[in-house]
Design brief:
By secondary structure, the chain is α+β, with helices and mostly antiparallel strands. The protein has one domain. It has three helices and six strands, in the order ββαββββαα.
Length: 145
């Protein structure tokens, strides 16, 4: 689960995570804070490791009253050239909204992008991380189903 105010921009190479593939966006990311009053602030490496790349952040930028605390993403279907992601927005460790995001990998077209640009960008980064780890065998198997 990533912080809902985090706008990932670039993969964070050499992060200090024990299991980077288990991170909410599939790896660690550099990015910008989009919390109200802090839009465009560049978090420190420490903040990226402790807050931004993880949900339920308690950094000094996150507003007390917010729509959600964390964003959870996952792969629902991998059909080779089409990926369907699911997302869940959580508040106080409970789901408050959810849905699917479909991407055609041949065109890069998202059929119904998320209306919140932060959530959409997280989905794109999650997909990039997923595709970097996806095996060629999985691609062949899913494209014949």
């Amino acid at each position: 689960m990533a912080c809902p105010f985090f706008m990932p921009v670039k993969i964070l190479e050499g992060g200090a995570w024990t299991h980077p593939a288990r991170l909410p966006l599939g790896c660690g990311w550099r990015g910008l804070c989009q919390a109200p009053g802090h839009e465009g602030a560049e978090p420190s490496d420490d903040e990226l490791h402790q807050f931004c790349n993880l949900g339920y952040a308690r950094c000094g930028r996150v507003p007390e009253n917010r729509e959600c605390d964390a964003v959870r993403l996952g792969v629902a279907f991998d059909r080779g050239s089409e990926i369907v992601l699911t997302y869940v927005l959580e508040k106080s460790h409970l789901p408050i909204s959810h849905g699917s995001l479909n991407c055609d990998l041949l065109t890069g077209f998202w059929s119904a992008p998320h209306p919140d640009v932060r959530i959409q960008k997280m989905a794109e980064c999650f997909l990039q991380s997923y595709l970097a780890r996806r095996s060629p065998q999985a691609i062949s198997a899913s494209s014949t189903s």
